[in-house]
Amino acid sequence: MAAAGGGSRADNGYGGQQARRRKGPGALATGYLVIYNVVMTAGWLVIAVGLVRAYLAKGSYHSLYYSIEKPLKFFQTGALLEEYLLIAKYLPGIVPSSVVLTAFQVMSRVFLTWAVTHSVKEVQTEDSVLLFVVAWTITEIIRYSFYTFSLLNHLPYLIKWARYTLFIVLYPMGVSGELLTIYAALPFVRQSGLYSISLPNKYNFSFDYYTFLILVMISYIPIFPQLYFHMLHQRRKVLSHTEEHKKSE
């Protein structure tokens, strides 16, 4: 599930839990991670500016997807590199994060970007696409800024607060957009037989993409509450720790 708007990525609380951190990356790896996160922050800012400019030019929020389609595909797919960094155990050295949940969120967003929105052209004008794009954009600007400042050991409280608070609205908003977009794609997938493989064939294998999308939607039922309540737990832990730290100073 895209974590769509939530920004959980299972969650990545860089700051505030220093005593529990594992050994972090060396200077070279840290420099690389800083550059990566700065680039990703800038990329999602470009998407945000593109949305605003397109809205001001058109005077309507309908069909704004086309104004940011290319950078959205590029930077959302770029999150696969983040998944590699997690598996390579760079980020876990800084972040107490679940690689499995993070992998699910990264892959689900890439899946929605390419296998649904890109592949089913008819849904690109749906308002639900704008719903998850806006949620993703705000979430990612905050998230990558959070990573950058955390790596530099200079995390402003406002960014930490936004990281652990705005997901309360953004996550359900993004998930709603994702589910509505997949639902809107179903009739076109069934009619066209997109990505489906029928028998007989030499591999004796069949695949129904329509059914697969339904199963993807059903998978949100157990995963979304787990991620959402995990974020709520992280919010209480991280922000309460920050408040206690302030009082002790």
Automatic annotation (TrEMBL):
It is a multi-pass membrane protein. It comes from the Eukaryota. Residues 1-23 are annotated as: Disordered. Pathway: Lipid metabolism; fatty acid biosynthesis. Its main location: endoplasmic reticulum. Pfam families: PTPLA. The chain crosses the membrane at residues 33-56, 94-117, 164-189, 209-229. Residues 1-16 have a biased composition (Gly residues). It catalyses: a very-long-chain (3R)-3-hydroxyacyl-CoA = a very-long-chain (2E)-enoyl-CoA + H2O; (3R)-hydroxyhexadecanoyl-CoA = (2E)-hexadecenoyl-CoA + H2O. It is found in: Endoplasmic reticulum membrane; Membrane. GO terms for cellular component: endoplasmic reticulum membrane. Keywords: Endoplasmic reticulum, Fatty acid biosynthesis, Fatty acid metabolism, Lipid biosynthesis, Lipid metabolism, Lyase, Membrane, Transmembrane, Transmembrane helix. Its EC number is 4.2.1.134. It is an enzyme of class 4 (lyase). InterPro entries: Tyr_Pase-like_PTPLA. GO terms for molecular function: very-long-chain (3R)-3-hydroxyacyl-CoA dehydratase activity. GO terms for biological process: fatty acid elongation; sphingolipid biosynthetic process; very long-chain fatty acid biosynthetic process. Belongs to the very long-chain fatty acids dehydratase HACD family. Catalyzes the third of the four reactions of the long-chain fatty acids elongation cycle. This endoplasmic reticulum-bound enzymatic process, allows the addition of two carbons to the chain of long- and very long-chain fatty acids/VLCFAs per cycle. This enzyme catalyzes the dehydration of the 3-hydroxyacyl-CoA intermediate into trans-2,3-enoyl-CoA, within each cycle of fatty acid elongation. Thereby, it participates to the production of VLCFAs of different chain lengths that are involved in multiple biological processes as precursors of membrane lipids and lipid mediators. This is Very-long-chain (3R)-3-hydroxyacyl-CoA dehydratase. The gene is Hacd2.
